[in-house]
Amino acid sequence: MLKxxxxxxxxxxxxxxxxxxTSVISCFAAPSIKPxxxxxxxxxxxxxxVFSMDESTHLVVQLSVSNLGLGDQxxxxxxxxxxxxxxxxxxxxYDSEMWRFIPPGFLEMGTCNMNLxxxxxxxxxxxxxxxxxxxxxxxxxxxxPPDHLIKTSDGFFDQQxxxxxxxxKVSVEMENQPRVTSAGYGCMYRFWVTALPPDLAQxxxxxxxxxxxxxxxxxxxxxxxxxxxIGWNWFSxxxxxxxIMGLDYDGKVIEVDTVAGQYLITLTRQLDRHAPxxxxxxxxxxxxxxxxxxxxxxxxxxxxxxxxDQLKTVLVEVMEDEAD
Length: 324
What we know:
By secondary structure, this protein is mainly β.
């Protein structure tokens, strides 16, 4: 049962990315990205990547380390690949001896690898039915905003944006299909946490808009159903992230009020529904009593700016506890 709990807490926390941040940030060149490897049982740390090749082709990768479940410092590689009507995903768990980190930036986790160089990041994974290689051409700069830290009664959440935007090249090969290589754009982040997910938020909304003009990023959390959403936006023309002035979400359209005006994010198509607790049978009621029923929906969307410019290459994740 502990292995089940480890896996699904991994997946739940793995989609809680970034946090609430203000307009003042600090940047540090060549940051250390070595895992913190903290002692609390609820500790987990995730390196996350989002790649957009066009408006219907996306790759989401997360490499995580956690103390959850049996043993400490276990690893996980989660991949979600979306290509039009096709999708593929995996949650691969690894014991502590099956992964390693070599400074300054090489992480090997089973058949999943991350390698940080001076001006690029290389990412790859190989499974029997799916393999990919991705290169993100960007220099890592850790952005840790003043309000990056969220504290709870028994833990915390901390985070960094490592690459806001960069040009990318992604090669994907699925079983019995020819290799497909595409150019696109990507971003990278990291967070580490010792708090249980329900203590951080009842719902998260995360927007990754990546195209040749830059990145449109939005992260919002609802601390509880009674609380107003709290979050930040960092749209392409801004020099730094700023707090949202207000937000309304009716399930189809997200209206975001910012210092630059109102942005409209319209969900156009649901790509994926990930409900790990619902799929484990007998143990589901035990895990649900601890972390609830976390469900992550992934959508395609468009963003309309105050000047009526429109960005179509948008991936939206809405995660909420459907047990509430």
